[in-house]
Amino acid sequence: KFRTFLLGLPQIEGRHCGENLAGRVSEIIYEYGFEGRMGYFVTDNAESNDTRLEELATELGFNKQHYRLRCCGHIINLVARSILFGTDADAFEEDCQADKELQDEMRLWRAKGPIGKLHNIVHWVQRSGQRIDKLHKLQSIENTALGLEDRSTYDVITDNATRWNSSEAMMERGYQLRNPLDSLVQAEVTEWDQYVAMRTGGGTRPMPKRSRKKPAIVDDKMSSEDWAVIAEYLAILKPLKIATKRLEGRPEEGMTIGKYGAIWEVLLTMEWLLQHLEDSKLQHEHDEEPYLRIGCNLGWMKLDKYYTLTEDSPVYLASLVLHPAFRWPSVESQWADHPDWLERGKIADTIPEQPTAARKTTDLDDFMASVRKLSTQRAPSAPPTRDEYAEWLSTSDPGDCLVDNPIQYLASPTTTVSTLVTNGN
User: Which GO cellular component does the record give, naming just one (predicted)?
Assistant: First the structure.
């Protein structure tokens, strides 16, 4: 059974630089006697983590590139933020924090298109108890008019610029409440138009200098086209949400989709997402507004960057080869158009750059299943003299393609490759 343990929570004195972090991690490793059997390090992409692992690799004698794995949840977060906010996501966040004037902040968000306009509307509603009450009343009116059995009403969900899933949740709830939200904003637009008409004599004279300031929310009125873009963003982000759940390290109790961030799922999930973003980019190639097309392209580029970095560690490919549902036949079929890469992968200490698979699918589970089926092809002939790894590659069972938990499978008493299991653990 998969378990996690907190081994230490040391206080770091001074800067949280790689050298300081490495020193404290090293102390914990030696305290528990792990120095001779280190596994892999999963971290985010901060430079201090690279420095920390370089220090530990020198001290403990391991290959830093082989043992340094990147947190997939963090990668997906970066991909989603690129889709939503572009290449300047961090700069945009800093601008919003620096601009304390509400009008200027709303202007910055509005420049982001429909997502920015919805952000402004949601935060505008949330700042006023009266507007929140009005939103619930409008929902009740709509529920009654539609004859819905479920008469529940909902609050808006506010987002923040650092977590993409908060933006996704904001858009999902906003789209659900689009009619009440439109009514709220339209009331402000109507009131402002009436005021302007009164002050200008129906447009016959200029607006007096001493007039009310135009409410910023008036410029954030959502059109039907804006809501359609929000719906498309939700469709684009849905696979990223699925992948995050699939690869998270601690899935909720009773959930079946997560495999505790199993390493063998990483490459396949990344390929599935790359294909999804490529398809989405082509789908929106001729859109009048460029938001979706540019977002998909930036997201694809960000994901491809980190997908390429997986070549630094052979564990990604090894995890597929040692999985009973995949092995080499699946890998060879999946990358059949790239025989040179396959050959280098079999003999090299480090794995060369993976080409993106051309296989197309629309669902992650279907994609995984399609690759599993490839493992039922005939295994290569075993050489006269072989070790347990060679035996593993040359023998398979028809039921292997159904295996979900490779560790449990390999640890089973019926598994003959005991040495392979011991070395793998």
Answer: nucleus
The alpha carbon of 350 is separated from its chain's Cα centroid by a whole number of angstroms, namely 26
> Cβ atoms within 10 A of the Cβ of 178, count?
18
Query: For residue 296, how many C-alpha atoms fall within 13 Å in the half-sphere facing its CB?
Result: 24
DSSP E strand stretches across 1-109: 41-43, 68-70
Q: Where are the domains of the chain?
A: 18-70, 101-222, 243-424
Q: Which conformational region is residue 46 in: left (phi greater than 0), alpha (psi within -120 to 50 degrees), or beta? A: beta
For 4, the token pair is 């996690």
**Tokens 């059949």 belong to residue:** 336
Hey, which residues does 316 pair with through a beta bridge? none
**Paired tokens of 392:** 């593993």
Instruction: Count Cα neighbours of 302 within 13 Å in the Cβ-side half-sphere.
Output: 25
For the chain, the first-to-last Cα distance in angstroms comes to 13
Tokens representing residue 5 in the block = 């343990």
Q: Is 39 helix (H, G, I), strand (E, B) or coil?
A: coil
Buried-state track 120-151, b at ≥16 Cβ within 10 A, e below 16: bbbbbbeeeeebeebbeebbeeeeeeeeeeee
pLDDT in tens, 259-306: 556 888 898 899 899 999 999 999 998 988 888 888 899 999 999 999
pLDDT digit string, tens, across residues 53-68: 888 888 888 888 888 8
3 state SS of 142: helix
Distances from the Cα of 327 to the Cαs of 186, 423, 425, in angstroms?
A: 59, 17, 18
Measured over the CA atoms of residue 184, residue 185, residue 186 and residue 191, the dihedral's sign is: positive
Q: Is-above-0.85 flag for pTM?
A: no
Nearest to 181 by CA among 170, 167, 192, 165: 170
The two three-digit tokens of residue 215, written as one number: 């409410």
Nearest CA to 257 out of 364, 374, 119 is that of 364
